[in-house]
Amino acid sequence: FPSQTVTGNFAKMIHGLSANQLTDQVIQRSKRMILDTLGVGLLGTSTEVCHKVAQYSKIYSSDLSSTIWGHLDFRLPPLYAAFVNGVAVHSMDFDDTWHPATHPSGAVLPALIALSEACPQKKKISGLDMLLAFNVGIEVQGRLLHFSREARNIPRRY
């Protein structure tokens, strides 16, 4: 249909996804990616860059808060918790990769965990919904990179 936009079709596809579309293989692979990301992120909490962004982020406060990984007594607004935890994941440069070049889990998982922690108790999401959201985030990155002219040129630059 010519009047529909690429963005509209993309949004419609994302909105139409449901947890029952996740295959056993996708679920198992996602769990492995999540465990890997958490492990790398916890290791990354000891890096200098992670300490710097955590210190910087302490100036922000909110009624909603999310955990900074590896620090049970340190909470920040979800946006900044996701930022600090994402930096922790990326700081070791051991996080998963994708082609064209990106580190998908380090961008997606910290945001999902921070948002899920900030949800009111009565609106907590299930593990299966978390896996769906994780896969949607990975899929969105992959599709955006697929259409990015700059991403296609990355391998030639190195």
Automatic annotation (TrEMBL):
Residues of the MmgE/PrpD N-terminal domain: 9-151
GO annotation terms (biological process): defense response
GO molecular function ontology, one term from the record: aconitate decarboxylase activity
Xref: Pfam families: MmgE_PrpD_N
Record-level GO cellular component terms: mitochondrion
InterPro entries registered for this protein in UniProt: MmgE/PrpD_sf, MmgE/PrpD_sf_1, MmgE_PrpD, MmgE_PrpD_N
Family listed: Belongs to the PrpD family.
Name of this chain's protein: IRG1 decarboxylase
Protein's organism: Chloropsis hardwickii
Species classification: Eukaryota, Metazoa, Chordata, Craniata, Vertebrata
